[in-house]
Amino acid sequence: MMRSFCQDLVWIGIQKKYLHKLQQKAKVIAAMDSMEMPHFVGLAEIENREVLEDLVRETAIANTAYSIAHIADNDDRGIEVAAIYRADYFRLLHLQAMEITILTASAEKCVTYCMPKV
Q: What residue ranges do the domains of the chain occupy?
């Protein structure tokens, strides 16, 4: 019984930290431009799509209706890249994980192409 209670306390603590981090990130995105919300934001070290969905629902940026560009990566460390963008300014043309070589290391990485609406 005590173990379950302790596990619940740990989970509550982790969840509070997670929500705080999301709120802070959303506030930073909202503060990037004093006139309007950013049109395109590139993000690194994202855990998964669910985190992105939680981020765009945060109060500070929720009214902007950001779209998400993300592909689950094969990185063993769980580090993924993604972007959130305003569909009223950008149209996602292509999203694909591509193998690229940087110096001598070869790895599959995600590349995102977006085009401004004309």
A: 2-89
